[in-house]
Amino acid sequence: MSGDPASSPDSMLDGQSSICDTPSSPDDRFVDEDRSMKLLQGFSKLYKDQEFVDVTLCVEDTEFPCHKNVLAVSSPFFMAMFSSNLAESQQDKIPLKELDSQTMSLVLDYIYTGQVMLSEDTVQHLLSASNRFQLISLRSGCAEFMMNHITVSNCIGVYFFAIAHECKVLAMKAKEIINNQFSVLCKQQEFLSLPADKLVEIISDDEINVGLEETVFEACMDWLQIEPTDRLQHLVSIMNCVRFANISSYYFCDKIDTNLVLKQSEKLRQTLDTVRYYHMLRNRQQEMDLNLMPRGGMSYERAVMIIANPYTEESLKKYNSMEMLLPKTGEVINICKLPQSLYTPGCAITGENQIYLAGGAIRKINYRGSITTEGVSNNFYVFDQIEKNWQSKAKMHMSRSQFCLTIVDGYAFAIGGQDGTEILSTVERYDSNTNAWMLVAPLPKPLRFMTSTSHKGKLYVFGGESTSDVSSSGFRYMLL
């Protein structure tokens, strides 16, 4: 019998090995659903009874006997401390600085039980500690608690605390309240006590919900007057955040342009001069170095007009629509149809917010989608913003497309282009007061597809193409 291979110990082990190597089915696995909770409860009891402790955390005058393995698996901070060559890995007592004992007690409650009592008095210290010990879930819980307790009276402090601790959702919620309640909180002590750099961060926001920029200006002046001796050094940086272009010209003349505090600074005197010209010279407003963006609560927005778009995928709008693009949101709003389908018309907007449409190649799109050109237009229209339609005005002397229409101190200049047969050098000027076009000095050579702009009452033309080449020249037209 001893010679029988089937009864040898090796063959028995081989048999057992073959049984153990058999793949098991998921249905054969036993899962103790209560195991994790019991384990956590066991850790909690060991901590409470101070059994098997092997390290003591010292915070202020309080000692916390703990277990290295529990701390290490709970916190990457402690894992790095105990598994490296740091001196703390060999110490029985580890001092922790920049932490109070109450907060440490709450952190350990969380580590050993998975839960902790939060309050408005302790939550900020606890969130800071959770950041330090890399307890991400605890940090999220603290941030959610704070989010549910944000008020107008504490939103500024919560915002800068959240920024410092990289709690983005909490910071967004606090900033939303700051912006929406700015008119109220700007009178509160928390706002008036802000350091200059924090004030600049708040008043620079586009989304402040105020109907008038005057509210922001007055809030800044109130802040300056709390400690004028110390704060006047920040006058320029604070006032650079005020959007003077959005302030009423009457308020500017009565309350700002006569303010002796503002005129102490040479740089601010220059800014006030620019604002004065802004209100006087409406057709030169885009030339001035002022922030023109309205705040979130204002009743108007700056927008980009898209006229006669040849690239739209909607066939009914191609060449034949005016749309408005809101830069803040990217939203495109359809305004109206054009008087006719036009390719490369001239378009311009005056300082009085009047929209001009001139010339263009007349396009026809049949029901099959094919496009034909039926001549070049010399029509000129002004958009009626109340009726939302186009009002026909005096026709240009020349039919034009592929040309520039540029506003210079209230006059509209139609420059170059082509009339369907040849490239033009002619230039004509429209006077809205007389509703008449007048031919003026022509370009030095015929051009189309150029670009033009106005600056300080002068008309500039750059580039373009002629019948033989592409121009690299620039021209200046002297109006006076």
UniProtKB/TrEMBL annotation:
Residues 1-27 are annotated as: Disordered. The keyword Oxidoreductase does not apply. Residues 53-120 form the BTB domain. Coiled coil: none annotated. It comes from the Eukaryota. Residues 8-25 have a biased composition (Polar residues). The keyword Amino-acid biosynthesis does not apply. Pfam families: BACK, BTB, Kelch_1. Keywords: Kelch repeat, Repeat. This is BTB domain-containing protein. It comes from Pinctada imbricata (Atlantic pearl-oyster).
